[in-house]
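Input (structure):
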């Protein structure tokens, strides 16, 4: 499992990056979600790596 925390607001980001943050289930800054560690989620994280912090469990 991966713990993904939104550390920066996506407001000034590109529209597709904002949509990716939403798809990860993140709505507010400092919100944390747990997602399975698979290729799909890793790809989403890579797209918005400047906005999130990731911890492995």
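Output (sequence):
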């Amino acid at each position: 499992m991966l713990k993904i925390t939104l550390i920066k607001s996506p407001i000034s980001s590109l529209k597709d990056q904002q949509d990716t943050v939403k798809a990860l289930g993140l709505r507010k800054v400092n919100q944390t979600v747990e997602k399975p560690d698979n290729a799909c989620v890793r790809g989403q994280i890579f797209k918005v790596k400047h906005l999130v912090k990731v911890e492995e469990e």
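Notes: The helical segments are 15-23, 39-47. The chain has one domain: 2-56.
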